[in-house]
Amino acid sequence: MYPTIDDLFTLLNTDGEAWYAAEPITHRQHALQCAWLAECAGESSHIIIACLFHDIGLLINPIEEGDDEHGPSDHDLIGVVALRRIFSEQVLAPIRLHSTARRHLAGVDGNYLNQRSPSLRREVSHMGGPLISSQSMVFRCMPGADDALLLCHYDDLARVDGASAPDIDYFKPLAHRLAARAQRVRTEIPA
Ligand SMILES: [Fe+2]
Ligand SMILES: [Fe+2]
User: Fold this and answer.
1) Which of 15, 34, 111, 137 makes a 20 to 30 Å CA pair with 102?
2) Which residue has the higher pLDDT, 68 or 90?
3) pLDDT by residue (tens digit) across 77-119?
4) CA of 173 to the centre of ligand 2 (A)
5) What is this structure's pTM?
6) How far is the centre of ligand 1, averaged over its atoms, from the C-alpha of 61 (Å)?
7) Domain limits of the chain?
8) The pLDDT value given to residue 64
9) Ligand 1 centre and the CA of 71: distance in Å?
10) Least distant ligand from the CA of 154
């Protein structure tokens, strides 16, 4: 059974109270800060909503005792499976690639990890470590890679205790608009 968009907002609001790995914020704060940073920077609607739901896979498959603090290493794919009947590929692609984008940045920029939190450094290692150059070349050719790098940028910044962000209800109209648009496109495309 696939979740509805309202199910996903409820999940962010309830289970999103859990701490986000070892960062000083909750999952919900992380998602809201990420989406708000994207909105304040004037990003497109699909980037804002991708930011909001990029880690929803971590709440769908929550961390259990004994698991790594960063949850399943395929949380990006788990999220996409949950979201694929709601949003367009424009929203899904950056979510699917956001962990790969971070591994790419860690591979091409020797300073990238040094400037990140210990929790984020452990996350990169948990996801498989920095990409080697041939893997980075493949990543850069993937549709949505640029958007994934944008998402990753806001994801990295959205870890600040006490940073301002609107209430979760603020993003509902935009999310519903994007979902309705994706639904329209789906029904207009002949089978
Ligand atoms: Fe993530
Ligand atoms: Fe994240």
Assistant:
1) 15
2) 90
3) 999 999 999 999 999 999 999 999 999 999 999 999 999 989 8
4) 22
5) 0.94
6) 13
7) 30-62+69-188
8) 65
9) 9
10) 2
Distance 70 CA to ligand 2 centre (A): 10
- Cα angle 97, 186, 92 (rounded to 5 degrees) comes to 10
Fold of 30-62+69-188: Hypothetical protein af1432 (1.10.3210)
Ion ligand 2 contact residues with beta carbon within 5 A: 55, 155
Give pLDDT, residue 1: 75
What does the pLDDT read at residue 27? 96
DSSP H or E segment with residue 85: none
